Amino acid sequence: MKPYTTNPHPARPPLYVYKLVKLWQKRMHLTHFGEIKLYTRAFKDGTAAETRWMKGYKGGSIHFGMKFLSNPTITYEEVESIVVHELCHFLFAEMDDKFEYYLGVGEVFFEYAKSREGMCDTIATILMARYKRAK
Which residues, in sequence order, are bridge partners of residue 51? Predict the structure, then answer.
């Protein structure tokens, strides 16, 4: 399924992305973050998305790569997978901040961050499979 043909507001993700974030935020019990703001950004390295959160974990944002969202071959399921992956980062937000505080931003923290990316991929895959079967 193709998510959309054109986006009338290229500075913002298309409406269906907002709906996916709301749906999965509820499913993943992340409503305590409140409204998660969505933006698009021109990443130089082709990044699909990036997550940021505020101290106190009461708000955050997801920045989607403009190239990723404007790719005509991208499917709805691929966008949904990225949304779930990025929301997984909110699950780890407090732990990430504590690790960064105690370890500093050095080699150990970067190794942890690489492992966390793999964990987010795995969790997103499991969650999507679970909800796909439940339909």
Answer: 62
Residue type, 93: A
- CATH architecture of the domain formed by 15-134: 2-Layer Sandwich (3.30)
Q: What angle do CA 38, 12, 76 make, to 5 degrees?
A: 80
Structure tokens at 125: 């895959």
Which tens digits make up the pLDDT trace of 56-74? Answer: 777 899 999 999 998 899 9
pLDDT tens digits, 111-135: 888 899 999 999 999 999 998 876 5
The Cα–Cα gap between 91 and 7 comes to 29
The answer to whether 38 and 66 are in contact (CB under 8 A) is no
Q: Which two tokens stand for residue 30?
A: 């992340």
Residue located via tokens 């929301």: 87
User: 65 φ, ψ to 5°?
Assistant: -70, 130
Query: CA–CA separation, 32 vs 129, rounded Å?
Result: 24
Locus of tokens 């690489």? 114
Q: Which tokens go with 98? A: 């504590």
Residue appearing with tokens 């509820």: 26
